[in-house]
Amino acid sequence: MATILDTVGNTPLVELQHLNQNKNVKIFAKLEGNNPGGSVKDRPALNMIKSALERGDINKSSKLIEATSGNTGIALALIAKLYGIEIELVMPSSSTRERVLTMEAFGAKVTLLESIEACRDYAEEKSASGDFYLLDQFANPDNYKAHYKTTGPEIWKDTNHEITHFVSSMGTTGTIMGCSMYLKEQNKDIQIVGCQPTEESSIPGIRRWPVEYLPKIFDPSRVDRIIDVSQEEATVMTRRLAKEEGVFAGMSSGGAASAALRLSQELSSGTIVFIACDRGDRYLSSDLFG
Description:
Layout: E1 13-15, E2 25-31, H1 42-55, E3 63-67, H2 71-82, E4 86-92, H3 97-105, E5 109-113, H4 116-128, E6 133-134, H5 141-158, E7 165-169, H6 174-186, E8 191-197, E9 225-229, H7 231-245, H8 251-264, E10 270-276
Parallel strand pairs: 2-10, 3-4, 3-6, 4-5, 7-8, 7-10, 8-9
Antiparallel strand pairs: 1-2
């Protein structure tokens, strides 16, 4: 019999029918909101906890702690409790109420601080005391390995090996690192395109990290190109995805879609896949769809 954890991954890949204006290019969205926790972060959350248990780094009496902007926290809250492990999640106070309530619904303790950088510092300080185990999605290889083992192979299979460009928003960078590793092994000519906010833009789930907070798992050599997307552009595209494609997702997905569509206009042919990171209902208390 299947458990809820067996439903992580194998998410749908759907072709955009209306937004794409280049008939010689196919653009597909990988619908990660179909994971049980509602986002792409279910994959690394499961792999980080499961791998730590298998190595003996943690057990059921351990206390986990993690800094998160939201989706990883929801995934960890869901999965940690299924393994019977306590977890404290540290989030920016600007996070939507839906995210906090979802984590608490799964049984996690939630602490709110002023910024994601402050959250990361707080989590590191508490883990240094020895009372908590820091999963550290920003430096944990089990983050990107989840995508090397699952997301990349799914995309390769579901495009019938025809993918030419992979587009992903960059937060922890686990998705783009793991998918790049796998896809480049299959075909070194596949272009890996990262998406980040323009200066002064704020897009949940995508970051322009200060150098001192750059994720340790990030290897710039695995990304062929980075496209900057503005907050306004990501917002407009997120709304258009819902209204014109029926893809109800968050702003980071709008950012990735914007990058994919911009990229498509440069190509004479190709198959582009972008990651639709989560579901739009996670943002209904914000002004994203207002």
